[in-house]
TrEMBL record:
Keyword Transcription (UniProt): no
Similarity section: Belongs to the major facilitator superfamily. EmrB family.
KW Transferase (keyword) present: no
Source taxonomy: Bacteria, Bacillati, Bacillota, Clostridia, Eubacteriales
A family per Pfam: MFS_1
Molecular function, one GO term: transmembrane transporter activity
Organism whose genome encodes this protein: Clostridium frigidicarnis
Gene3D superfamilies according to UniProt: MFS general substrate transporter like domains, Multidrug resistance protein D
One of the record's GO cellular component terms: plasma membrane
Chief localisation class: membrane
Name of the protein: Drug resistance transporter, EmrB/QacA subfamily
Membrane topology qualifier: Multi-pass membrane protein
Length: 474
């Protein structure tokens, strides 16, 4: 990479454009598929439960391999893994686009997920390594904006493609974007000059893949079959055992997959924990909102989609701005402010009823999204700035894994708590919305929002205490 006389990369903004193309593409592919699932199920002649694996397989493979690719990036170079990821993602997208059976589609989604994991494991590391500290927050904010943009554009774009063309084009659309990103990376990113003489921890990698696959698979299927199902319980238990063995192995080898000493850094660990909290809360809210809009407020699906664009739209605007402010005034105060505002927004959401006005609902969502937007970029900057350069790959991968874990845990927490409270209110077990009993849903929704708002306030208080004691020590 070309470096100017003052030590700053000359082409850092072009590199960032290349990185955000990949981020946009990966997030677009996560959200664009959902709207096409009914059509895909019909054309492939499979059940609704079966077609759900098109989404689940992609999420599971990313989550179970992103740390491995992060470690490979630290060993062989971030740019090599980045290029490999884009190339594999393009190949996976092409095979998805020509699949004519569910089996082939799921296999190709695994390939696509591997490519996404490889590229996602390096995006934050590359951005952090090419930008100076006084521009890093802004750059990571732009990354956050494009992640939100991909998630926002996915559903309407997917609906348009499915209504005009074949569902296969929702995968084929990735190819031209991916080729642009690949060509740019080949032109701008040189191969790393030094490669570590270290080997990948294969035992640890196998245990990690098994643990995360079982955990995510159990949490995902537990929503359908119930968490008291013996196979779901066994899956979670085996996952915990594998993770326990993984930690023991990592502590006793010279070249671990994850250097656990990274978690001794209190700033890194707390920032990761607060990031997990934010993703749990946003995921829990996002799974409830469609039911509230459509079943309680009686809005159409299309109008519900319009209402739910508000949150990512706010993120697109606020993320770069909060990143810029973190470069100017520091990140820690902004993370406290962001989590606090997010918690207030969630608490306000708990006051909504079946009679609440749309304006009020959108104001509360705006407050919630404002807090999330203020929080994310500075928190990512704290995470990536708190580790040495030789651990940027694994740090970015841990951050990516935590994001996916938060999204899954948020859905599980939300649905479990919601239906538990709804069942308590009505007097018998229910796992669905009860028509003409909007009060039952509102009762459950209220408790979900109260609990996740408390989580946000806990993260905010912990960050505030850490900052206070740090300044007192200085």
């Amino acid at each position: 990479m070309s470096i100017s006389s003052d030590g700053v990369h000359k082409y850092r903004w072009v590199i960032l454009f290349n990185v955000v193309l990949t981020i946009f593409m990966a997030n677009l592919d996560s959200s664009i598929v959902n709207v096409a699932l009914p059509v895909m199920a019909q054309e492939l002649q499979v059940s609704t439960a079966s077609i759900g694996w098109v989404v689940s397989s992609y999420l599971i493979i990313i989550s179970s391999t992103i740390l491995i690719f992060g470690r490979l990036a630290d060993i062989h170079g971030k740019t090599i893994v980045f290029k490999f990821g884009i190339a594999l993602f393009i190949i996976g997208s092409f095979i998805c686009g020509i699949s004519n059976s569910l089996t082939n589609l799921i296999i190709s989604r695994f390939i696509q997920g591997l490519g996404a994991a490889a590229s996602m494991s390096t995006t934050q590391a590359i951005t952090t390594s090419v930008f100076p500290l006084n521009e890093r927050g802004r750059a990571l904010g732009v990354c956050g904006a494009f992640a939100a943009l991909g998630a926002m554009i996915g559903p309407p774009l997917g609906g348009f493609i499915v209504s005009i063309f074949s569902w296969k084009f929702i995968f084929l659309i990735n190819i031209p974007v991916g080729l642009v990103a690949l060509i740019l990376s080949l032109c701008i990113f040189p191969n790393p000059t030094t490669v570590k003489k270290e080997k990948l921890d294969l035992k640890g990698s196998a245990l990690l893949v098994l643990s995360i696959t079982l955990l995510f698979g159990s949490l995902t299927q537990g929503q359908e079959f119930g968490f008291n199902n013996i196979f779901i319980i066994l899956g979670i238990i085996i996952s915990i055992i594998c993770m326990f063995i993984f930690i023991i192995i990592e502590k006793n080898i010279s070249s671990p997959l994850v250097d656990l000493s990274i978690f001794k850094n209190k700033l890194f660990s707390l920032s990761i924990f607060c990031g997990l909290i934010s993703f749990v809360c946003i995921s829990a809210s996002n799974i409830i909102q469609p039911f509230y809009f459509q079943n309680t407020l009686k809005f159409t699906p299309s109008f519900t989609g319009v209402c739910m664009i508000v949150a990512p739209l706010i993120l697109v605007v606020i993320s770069p701005l909060s990143g810029y402010l973190s470069d100017k005034f520091g990140s820690e105060l902004l993370t406290i402010l962001g989590l606090t505002i997010l918690g207030i927004g969630l608490l306000l959401m708990s006051t909504l009823t079946q009679y609440s006005s749309l304006i009020l609902v959108l104001i509360f969502i705006l407050i919630m999204s404002l807090g999330n937007g203020i929080f994310q970029s500075p928190n990512n900057s704290l995470i990536m700035s708190s580790v040495p350069k030789n651990k940027l790959g694994i740090a970015g991968s841990i951050n990516g894994l935590v994001r996916n874990l938060g999204l899954v845990l948020g859905v599980c927490l939300s649905t479990t708590l919601l239906y538990n409270k709804m069942s308590y209110k009505i007097g018998y077990r229910i796992t669905t919305y009860i028509n003409d009993r909007d009060d039952i849903f509102i009762y459950g929704m209220k408790y979900v929002y109260i609990i996740i708002s408390i989580l946000c306030f806990v993260g905010s208080i912990l960050t505030a205490f850490r900052l206070y004691f740090q300044k007192k020590h200085k």
